[in-house]
Amino acid sequence: MAKNGTIFLNLLNLAPKKIHDIIESLDDPDQIFRITSYDLNKIASLNQKNIDEIIHLRKSNILDKELELIEKANISVIDIFDRSYPALLNEISYPPIVLYLKGSETILSENLFAIVGSRIPTLYGISTAAKFSYQLSAAGLTIVSGLAKGIDTIAHKEAIRTGKSIAVLGSGLLNTYPKENAQLAEKISLNGAVISEFPLKTAPLRENFPRRNRIVSGLSYGVLVVEAATRSGALITARLACEQNREVFAIPGNVDSPLSRGTHRLIKEGATLVDSIDDILNELNIPYQQQTISYDANLNPDEKIILDMIHNEGAYLEELLIKSNTNPAMINKIILNLQLKGLIKEIKPSCFIKNTYLH
User: Fold this and answer.
1) Which CATH architecture has domain 106-283?
2) For the structural domain made of 301-354, what CATH number should be given?
3) Residue 346, beta-bridge partner list
4) Among 10, 99, 166, 251, which has the minimal tally of Cβ within 10 Å of its Cβ?
5) Strand 247-250 relative to strand 272-273, pairing
6) Rounded to an integer, what distance in angstroms lies between the CA atom of residue 320 and that of residue 340?
């Protein structure tokens, strides 16, 4: 459990470097409640406004309110001095001094791997993220991502189907963002964890997300970028991963797609090109025997025909109707049967892909 001193320091609106400079000047984090303005002035990175803020907040009830929220919401809080603090994260520059956590603390010491990408992915990006997240999770990796719309959401959902996941927020744990992923966050916390360095009610401010991204990459042995435009948060995460000496992997895509430009740039700059999970597992020295689904088992001729029409990038129901020249009632029945057999899944309304990964 974090000390009150580290929780209080984390409540200050200061850059991570300044927080670390304060901690290094103290014999114990709780000394922040006793240190004088004179001694705070000796910390070169602090200005007078910072010092005045510290003194002012010490006299307030800000810490008491946060501690009350922590207890009421049953949130775990670990700090950088705790044994359970993740060792990999502790290696990065100015790691978060506090982690708020809902779920399992022990998961932070497991084999963690990040998957990130566009908030508005293509069908190719959706199916690829689903495939890689599911397979890597089945291989025993815990999938880390940022709970954002798009690739992050897909990665989390597929990971928890067969294993565990960690969601890193750019807001407080009592202010889940985006709101529509609040239920997903709850599911993740059942076997995995939802974490944040920000105080519990922190809003999802723009400046929080680069800090969130450094935790996503900092926790992980490697980062896979599925789709990314030339200016995107996923590329920020990849850059941070490089700075943190983490392995960076990228999925190649359609040369005409704007969402391939970011991943192709990463590959040109030295990221490992990935077309199967073996590329990742071999690089990370994780043994794994890949398995596949047999598509011929228990299928009637009509089901085989429709299944063959559903390619890995997705097929819309209207497209299947036209190509098969089959009546809508029959197509709907076949689609339902294929879903029940676990051979296809709906990734968008009336759009289906094969389950080409472990089931």
Assistant:
1) 3-Layer(aba) Sandwich (3.40)
2) 1.10.10.10
3) 352
4) 10
5) parallel
6) 18
